[in-house]
Amino acid sequence: MLEEVIQIARRAGEAILEVYHASGAVEVQHKDDNSPLTIADERSNRVIVESLRALNLPMPVPLVSEECPLPALSERKQWPRFWLIDPLDGTKEFIKRNDEFTVNIALVEGGVPVLGVVVAPALNTTWAGAMAYGAFRECHAARQGRIERVEIAPRKLSRDSITVLGSRSHGVESMDALLAGLQAQFKSVQIENVGSSLKFCRVAEGSADLYPRLTPVCEWDAAAAHAVLRAAGGDVFSPTRAAPMAESLRYRLDDGLLVPQFLAVGDLEAPWNQLLANCFGVSK
Predict the structure, then answer these.
(1) Which has the closest alpha carbon to 223: 273, 267, 264, 186?
(2) Are 37 and 47 in contact (CB under 8 A)?
(3) DSSP result, 161-176
(4) What domains does the chain contain, in order, with CATH numbers?
(5) Residue 23: CB atoms within 10 Å
(6) Which of 76, 89, 150, 191 is the most exposed place for a label (fewest CB within 10 A)?
């Protein structure tokens, strides 16, 4: 099924690029929460929803998408598994035309993201993974008509240096205490701002160590890339003050579908609880 979902996400990416490469400014609307919406979001969503519903599965799997009406909470709570979709993650990046936007599709079972596909259409790159399968990155060499697939895994954390990723659109102001704590423990702390779900993928492929998100984010923004990171050997945690790595993030489709904050890490053997203790203000 992973290969089928990859093809669906790529077709959605192609629909996005038709808008992205069109001449003229992108027409932008705003939803009730003031987040931007473009025709590319809608076209990508249509491709994904229709294609997932057409999959030949033993049992129908319900879906939740940023661009679809949300089923009632009482109904969602009955689902043992579901698709969780962001048809265009990084709409602000899309509007700015900086290439750092993605298509996100995750399969969640019992709150755990067990399959994920992240396609960055403007970068010609796909990250995908599933539990018991592993994770990989594909780069599309369009002119040569070939696809290069390589397995990915997080890197081991060095005690001399650490690379921390932040959001290109949301800034890193909320990370000041965390960064100060890390700078007291590492000789070098490199901070990079990256758009959309690419931050998780950077950790999964071993080009960064930590992605802390200390402001709320919707579940569909994180699930697909979380699945890739888990399949690669890392994980995403819901931190508490007592234990930053106490619990792996779960997707429960509660009211609002918001994740208050999380920490995405690559090296699960690193002493993160010690390194991040008292580095940021989270509730117990």
Answers:
(1) 264
(2) no
(3) EEEEEEETTTBSGGGH
(4) 2-151 (3.30.540.10), 161-276 (3.40.190.80)
(5) 4
(6) 150
Find the distance separating the first CA and the last CA of the chain, reported in whole Å: 39
Q: pLDDT tens for residues 99-113?
A: 999 999 999 999 999
Q: Are 224 and 86 in contact (CB under 8 A)?
A: yes
**Structure confidence by residue, pLDDT tens digits, 201-220:** 999 999 999 999 988 999 99
Residue type present at position 226: H
Query: Cβ atoms within 10 A of the Cβ of 47, count?
Result: 20
Residues 6+ apart with CB under 8 A from 76: 62, 64, 70, 82, 253
Q: Which among 192, 225, 2 is positioned nearest to 102, based on CA atoms?
A: 225
16 and 40 in contact (C-beta within 8 Å)? yes
Contact 103, 44 (CB under 8 A): yes
Number of Cβ within 10 Å of residue 58's Cβ equals 5
Burial class (CB in 10 A: 0-12, 13-18, 19+), 62: middle
In the numeric block, which tokens belong to residue 158? 């060095």
pLDDT at 278: 64
d(CA 284, CA 278): 12
